[in-house]
Batch of 4 targets.
Target 1
Amino acid sequence: MKNSEVLILGIESSCDETSAAVSCNNRLLSNIIAGQKVHEAYGGVVPELASRAHQANIIPVVDQALKEAGIRKKELNAIAVTAGPGLIGSLMVGVSFAKALSAALSIPLIEVNHMQAHVLANFALNKETQAPVPQFPFLCLTVSGGHTQIVLVKAYNMMYVIGQTLDDAAGEAFDKIAKTLNLPYPGGPLIDRYAKTGDASRFQFPTANLSELDFSFSGLKTSVLYFLKKHLAEDANFIEKNIADLCASVQHTIVRSLINKLKKASEQTGIKQIAIAGGVSANSGLRSELQKVALLNGWTVFIPPMSLCTDNAGMICIAAYYKYLENDFSTLDLAPQARLSL
Ligand code: KG4
Ligand code: ZN
């Protein structure tokens, strides 16, 4: 490796994916993600089970990330880790591991804010490509299981939330509505899959009409629940018979709400560089609608590859690389934080 090349091992364990990645500057050499099937039966993430699974997965996942990257531990320049927001027990597994490794190797420890990392996933290059990256300032719609935010990004470390959900996050809305449709957790990707063959105009659901740039999704969840109750009373097989149209209609409603606020944010700020991030940005309806709206409004859009949308350590490496350039390091008294704003 050349002197100007910075090799970082990133670790992500904020929720239910144990992930490790290796980067060289802002290029990813590996990005290994171990999911946790154990939660499916419970309809949501069980924090204690998540912590235990992280504990079991972290060493093999880190080994695999180093092996795939072809990098030995002693070649690393820094260890990066998600410090929050997230489940405290899950975060503690990653943070403790990263602290121990940075101490053992005598290399810097870099703490990363998970929500900042989602945004900065837009700067990741993979082994082969030199994808265009956003220029500052840009807007990022960060949509995940726990957050729905429109972020004004002025620099790698200067991000301002200018709109957010007042209740459920978009991913939470997908997952909770999926549950009422008898789909297993996490339901977002399944709604996406069924929606592909469904008619989005078949059922109409209301969206909250909030002023400014904030979102609300809890009303949608309730209205789908009452709608289903009414129809199931007439036909016990209503869901099975209409699953594709139901999923397409729900997805269309959520996507419309996200895109409308994004348009408003672009009008208010005059910014036409638009990025998306977070698990829900893997949604094919959102991705294609964004492309359409971009053409009509002269936006340049940045859509990370699917593997960098949902939780992954690659994005932790990218966020850490820009902190490394600023010598922004942490000490061994770093403590994870369940709540952490941008
Ligand atoms: O960013 P993420 O992996 O974890 C959090 O930080 O929350 O986001 C997970 C969320 C879940 O709610 C999941 O259902 C949703 O992202 N999700 C999707 C899709 N893929 C993941 N929602 C809709 N369509 C998808 N294709
Ligand atoms: Zn996330």
Target 2
Amino acid sequence: MTLLQLNELTVYYGPVRGIAGVSLEVEEGEVVALLGANGAGKSTVLKALSGLVRPLSGTISYDGRDLRSIRAHDRVRLGLVQVPEGRRIFPALTVEENLELAGFGFGDPRAKRRSRVEEVLERFPLLQPHVGKLAGMLSGGEQQILAIGRAMMAGPRLLMVDEPSLGLAPQMVEYVYELLEGIARQGTAVLLVEQNVTLAFEISRRAYVLQQGRVVLSGASADLEDDPRVVAAYLGTDRGDGDRLASETADP
Ligand code: ATP
């Protein structure tokens, strides 16, 4: 069943195009990768989904609802939760406090927040020995896991993850990816923004490649894995539809 559907979504930052006419879908429990070079528009898609930027045109349907009129914090309540690039944890709070704080927004009583924290810690055993430590003292990988744990406090149906492998040691990258796979196996869909194409294809069922704010390629990850057009899109040497469309479409 389709959980998320973007239809011809366009976002501008003043005169600067973020994305133009992006359409994509995520099924329940599916891992979908959003790929592309720096500035291709990946984070803009996530920001539009989280409600941090307002689209100029196009529609976003999530669980059958039109998201445009739903405010950012209400989207989190609906299970649309983002793990931001750079983690954005609170370094001066403990691991436990970081998790508990994530539960505050829902107005749940303390006992319920506590049991959510316990659930997350059980699921993410690597955090357990660090519960009382300041989050800023954790390694980059541990902080990334904490950021994912914090997002899990909201009980997501769609987890949006921005560059989870950035700056992590290889074993940690592997661990984080196993974690994301486990999350998806238990029914949470994952929309993954990742610069590391190999990793992204490994974990995802389908992928979309963005170039200059437009989707230039999409399909099953297994098919795209060896497609030279993916590399071309990254290097900006693509001579396919994407370039043609980008240059032919007049900006508003
Ligand atoms: P990266 O991997 O570097 O984060 P990205 O694919 O996520 O890149 P976006 O950050 O979505 O790309 O950027 C898409 C376009 O929108 C780029 O041209 C970028 O310069 C522009 N852009 C993004 N954020 C802003 C902003 N706050 N103000 C102005 N332009 C912006």
Target 3
Amino acid sequence: MTDDVERPGAQEWVPDRPTLPRLRAALQECRGCELYRDATQGVMGEGDPGAELALLGEQPGDREDQAGEPFVGPAGRVLDDALADAGIAPERVYTSNVVKHFRWSGMRGKRRIHQSPKQAHVAACRPWLDAELRLVRPTGVVLLGGTAGKALYGPSFKVGACRGRRLDWPEDRPVEVPPQWVLATTHPSAVLRARGERQEAYDALVADLRVAAGLLA
Ligand code: URA
Ligand code: SF4
């Protein structure tokens, strides 16, 4: 499907000699796609700048958009618990999203309703993620959910088909020091949506994160 929105992509806003603080500042000027318009701010990744493990989600949610930090809302609490249960210390990870501005439409009570980003938004935003990964140089990357999976492996990627297994870094994604492995799992918000099967969904997320912990060890 096409639409008539202009999306030049983020590259021209990415600083020539980036550092993580410079990326964070420059992100606020990005006009690489239209998502900046309805968001409070761009949300750059957070965490250990030398982390061995990078966790990648989809995009900031309502709470993250206000706080300016990834995974500080309900999904973030699930993720924190799951990391702890998998034996991964939070200060050892770098956490980010494949899209840096919150995409939403309409209200549910006081909360804005999240809309998944389109592939075109993910593609427009990619220079920010590539710049972060070039600086952090993680050994391993955990993809949280289908949007992050598609961002790396393309539109046919399905989490269910390969979750919890070691994957290779995609060849068409050049970084100077590619991560040694990638592991996909479900998004923590899927645990929140799982209703009757919430415990099973949570346990499966923890099991996948344990595989990641084992690959790091
Ligand atoms: N969901 C995400 O994918 N990322 C966040 O930062 C918060 C919720
Ligand atoms: Fe730029 Fe990404 Fe925000 Fe679009 S979503 S304006 S590409 S930072």
Target 4
Amino acid sequence: MERSVVLVKPDGLQRGVVGEVIHRFERKGLRLSGIKMISLDDALLDEWYAHHKDKSFFPSLKEYMKTAPVVAMLWEGVDAVSTVRKLIGVTKAREAEAGTVRGDFAMSQQYNLIHASENKEIAQKEEKLMFLPSEVFSWEKTDYKHIYLKEELF
Ligand code: CMP
């Protein structure tokens, strides 16, 4: 099964949406496989946002990501990466669909509350950057039998 890395970013902690995010993902039927609070430093941010390093907003993005800790989570499910992206909404929060996390709670392109892995390859890279193997939990979610048809599980 796929896992997506989600960060509730510093503005998400300031705005008090950590519980809301967890609540939404739990209700969707995703399985929480890891969670921790962490302060991001320059070394980790340089790797995390390597694909943005030439963008004009990169210095501002790094400063913002160091203003408070983040809550890092691993959410697992069938097609979890694309499912989580749909739940969070597009980057520019004021254009995000109502019903998404950004669409319901944010307005900014930078202060958009939450990060989620863009694709499967990036999800695997981000999991390794953010979590030790001992911080990733595999547990039997007994209500999967009510969430998925048996044939959908692999
Ligand atoms: P995310 O898409 O999760 O990861 C890259 C982050 O950079 C993005 O969220 C925003 O927080 C930030 N970002 C993206 N585009 C801009 C922009 N044009 N100006 C400022 N910040 C941005």
